[in-house]
Design brief:
alpha+beta; three-stranded antiparallel β-sheet; 9 helices; about 40% helix
């Protein structure tokens, strides 16, 4: 089968709006030159579109015209390596997604362990952030929650009362085993993260892991978040002010 036919067959399994690279087309590097010519022909026909060098997508056609891929699809090459998740989106972009801020950042932060992800293009700017553990598809959502807790007092335009309500609601929906995993990952984070996590869990009545969090903290240390007792009554139990 020719390279062009291989690509056309592989494209059948790719959804409209989904981004892809040469690797996802199962093309050997020695075939990239031939593949590039076949891809250029498909672009001219309008079958696929280019997002950036080496990244393409199948356009989704609607009555309003063709839709561009969503941000998650555009950022996918930076979050995965050979299909394996190695990073996650954090910073203001994440806090906006969680409803903690209305600000939309011009620069996106991506957290990874052991890999600095940095992009400076006209239409895409990425700065690296620190991940405290190796990122996987099974844990990145816990890390997102912990990042929001850790940086609570640094979230732009945050209404503290509304922010606490959102975090309490997120934690309330987690099952017991998910809370256990969240606490396990929090032990890799700075103490202030565990202190606020403890106060939130206690307020929600989820007390199974509170002792583990308390034991991980210095009983003499105070943590400044600017959270008042009338917003989160349990802050005093965790030396948060």
């Amino acid at each position: 089968m020719s390279i062009a036919k291989k690509i056309e067959e592989r494209l059948k399994s790719i959804r409209e709006g989904e981004t892809f690279t040469y690797e996802q087309l199962s093309i050997d590097k020695k075939e990239y030159q031939t593949a590039a010519k076949a891809i250029e022909r498909l672009i001219k026909k309008g079958v696929i579109k280019r997002v950036s060098p080496g990244q393409f997508f199948k356009p989704k056609k609607t009555v309003f015209g063709e839709l561009l891929p969503n941000d998650g699809e555009i950022l996918k090459p930076y979050l995965f390596d050979n299909g394996k998740r190695i990073a996650y989106i954090t910073g203001t972009y994440l806090y906006n997604k969680l409803g903690l801020t209305t600000q939309i950042p011009q620069i996106i932060k991506i957290a990874s362990r052991g890999k600095e992800i940095k992009v400076n293009k006209t239409n895409l700017k990425i700065k690296p952030a620190k991940s405290y553990v190796d990122v996987t598809n099974k844990n990145y959502q816990y890390l997102e929650i912990l990042d929001a807790i850790k940086n609570f007092d640094k979230i732009p335009d945050l209404n503290s009362e509304n922010g606490i309500r959102i975090l309490l609601n997120i934690l309330q929906k987690l099952k017991k085993v998910e809370i256990e995993r969240l606490v396990k990952y929090s032990l890799k984070y700075p103490p202030r993260t565990r202190a606020l996590l403890g106060a939130l869990l206690e307020e929600n009545g989820k007390k199974d892991n509170l002792e583990k969090l308390q034991e991980s903290l210095n009983p003499l240390t105070e943590y400044s978040f600017g959270i008042k007792k009338d917003i989160l009554p349990t802050v005093e139990n965790w030396k948060i002010k």
